[in-house]
Structure formats: structure tokens, C-alpha cells
Amino acid sequence: MGYDNSGRAAAAKANRTRVLAAARAAFLESGWAGTTIRGVAEGAGVSQETVYKTFGNKAALLKAVHDVAMAGDDEPVSVADRPAAQRVRAATTPEEGAAAYAAMAREISERAGPLMRVMLASRGGDADLEAYAATLDEQRLVGTTIHLGHWAERGWLRTDATRARDIVWMLISPAVHEMTVARGWSGDDYEAWLAETLRATILTDS
Predict the structure, then answer these.
(1) CB atoms within 10 A of CB 203
(2) Which residue intervals are the DNA-binding region (predicted)?
(3) CA atoms of 75 and 2, how far apart (whole Å)
């Protein structure tokens, strides 16, 4: 009879879930500088060694927490395969595409926004955090390239695909979303503005 390690796997997953929850709470309450692996471990009821073995360092832990916020859960399903992204791909007109993309950007920004405030407030003071921020920028560029590629194939772009990709990459920057929050915009305001801006800057009328 083979060895059944399902119990160990379940325990590891439960530990990961507790660590992610404790880390999110710590980052939001204490910021980047005030959050420690020791504090996260104590909050999760695990050893510091468990946190280090599972995530590596503090920047990797923040990335894992952010990934959960981006996706909505810790399941191994990429953002590109989530319902919001599927609705963008299923759009049949530029207007529908802009609306779906804006809705997706809003959904992600609202979930990840609080953590992005932590990162944006601490940039420039930590090499690991800077590397993590650069990784996020690159991931956003990859995702934008994929969606803009679909739009280009359908003939929806009024400018070349590379220029359009760069415009969208900038528009959906966390820093831009945070500026709308700072100005008192609602989620509806942000979504409507983004959809309108996509239609006006990169998409054809039909």
C-alpha cells in the first residue's frame, strides 16, 4: 500500500492560507517596513522557518499576497483564465471589449489596491521591493500584450499594436488607479473613465 501524504499536503495548504492572511493583515496595518517575518509567523501560528521555506523572503511574501488579491483566491488558476479575462476575450465589438477590459481592471485594482498603496508608499527604500515592483510592471505588460494582440487580430486598433499596448499599460498602472482614489472617484467613475479612454485613444468605432 502506497504512502498517503494527503494529510501533510492539506496541512501545508492550511499553513499557507494562514500565513497569507496574517501577512496581508500585517502589510495593511504596519506597512512594508513595519512587517516582519517573525510577526507574520506569530500571527499565523507557524514557525519563521515555515514562512521562509514556503515563500522565501518578505518581498516574495508580499508578491504571494498580492497574487491572491489579483486573482481573488489562492487557487492555481491564472488571471488570464479567470472569468473577467474570459469576458474580455469574448467581446464581439470594440465597445464591448473596452467595457469588459475596464471592468476587469477595476475588479483587479479594487482587490489589490490596498496592497499597492503599501508598495507605492515604500518604493525607493528597499532593493527587494524594487525588484518586486519591476516584476509587477513586467507582468502587467505581458497581460496587456496578450489582450491587445487579440484586439489587433480583430482589426479594432486605431494605432499600431505596440503603441496601443504601451498606452493601455500606462492607463491601468496601479499608480493611476490610486490617483483616482485620491481624487475621490468611485469604482464606477474609474471603470467608466477607463472604458471611455480606451475607446477614444486606441479602439476603432466598430
Answers:
(1) 22
(2) 36-55
(3) 27
pLDDT above 70 as % of the chain = 93
In contact, 151 and 198? CB cutoff 8 Å? no
Report the chain's C-alpha Rg in angstroms. 19
Q: What's the CA angle centered on 189, arms 159 and 153, to 5 degrees?
A: 25
Which three three-digit cell numbers place residue 198? 480606451
Helix (H, G, I), strand (E, B) or coil at 15: helix
Segment 59-82, tens digit of pLDDT: 889 888 988 887 777 666 677 778
pLDDT tens, position by position, 137-184 = 898 999 999 999 999 999 999 999 999 999 999 999 988 998 999 999
The domains found in the chain, sorted by start residue, are: 1-56 (1.10.10.60), 78-201 (no CATH)
Count H helices and E strands in the chain, helices first: 10, 0
